[in-house]
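Quick one:
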Amino acid sequence: MDMEKFKRIILDNEDILMEKALKYGKERNYTKYTSTLKEAWRMSIAGLSKALVKVIEKNDIPEMGPDDDFTKSEVAEFGIIEAQKHRSRGVTLGMFLGFMKYYQQAYEDLIFESNFLPEEKRYCSLYIKRYFDQVEMGFAIEWSGLSEKHELEELQELNRAMTNEKNKYLTIFESIYDPIILVDEDNNIENINYKAAEVFFDVVVSGMKYYRNINNEKELGGLIDELNKFTDLNEKEVLLEKTIETKEGQKTYLIKFKKMLDVSEKYRGTVILFNDITERQKMDQILKRQNEKLEYYAFTDPMTGVSNRRTGLMILEKELAFEHRSGSPLSICFLDIDGLKMVNDTFGHEEGDNLINCITTIIKSTLRKIDTISRIGGDEFLVIFPGCFQLDVEKAIMRINDELKEYDKKSEKTYQHAFSYGIIELTENNKLSVNDVINAADKKMYANKLKKKNREEIHEF
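Output:
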């Protein structure tokens, strides 16, 4: 028999051995007395395999004789150590010897399912059987040599250890800053920590003694529906966000429901964890408003509230591309406010800003929703009229001018509100770029301004 091959199959299949042992434990209900965490079972398999490999390295099958001293046997020594560990956990000799048979079965299954030759499988199976026999001998020797006094002392020590663990748990549970509520499998409150009592309940008393006759519908409030839904789900945990009325006022929590499972994975209740995100939400709202403000200023002229130069050029570029695709008419109008320099020099720049704002307000009120006005420079504006011919824009400009004249009749200002303009109509065959379009409209606007100057309608030159 190739003992190195035997050793390798044991060492290389730790996961398979662990899964097999856990499967047998669940099937035979041994997991009700121990953990179902895979890592706990991995440690048991690792310990058994390590001792087994030491024996394999000695080649011979570990047989037993009537005069053998099993207290000095390396294999039995491992069994003695394990007996001491499991006895202190309250496991009986019969219980552990019974389950050791299923550990042994896992190792024998591994050999049976391997590609060993039949005679190799028989040899390895016998080897494993003798190995587990000696482990069991170690258990029996340790248990039979224990006096009643020693057993009582051991149980007392175990009880003290359990009490210390309980106190440690309670200390941690009470000191957690976030509120925690524990409910049983019927969703009745079993325990709460100090923070939960302080925030949610009428009396600052934590612990389950206070909750013998508690009204869950009242105390859990709007959470009871979510909790009932959660217990019906196959999910082990869920997160939800909820605003709750507390003794400290209205607060928003990120709430986690997490199922509590015992060592046999049976549902025993739910842990409800409350993470207060009220301040974080407020900060998120502040940041959101700041971002919205930054975005607004990135695309908007702050003084007039119309689109800024960057936005206007982007819109024009998109409209030109759309016009090429669809053949839809497009007209743009380049505006320049008349008399701004004279108003600035005579009345000050604040009054000049009032002039600009008044004109842009009237223009905006006259335009359609799909039309856009952008401030290109100090007193220069670009108005885009999708789907409009030049004649349509001329009519729109006339309406704006009429509005401005009516405003001047009622105004006590000593200057007029007016502008010069140039209109460019773009057809389906247009090949002009954004700059070409603006330059062409700009030239028309200056021609219009020159006519008004010659008619002495503009007094700033």
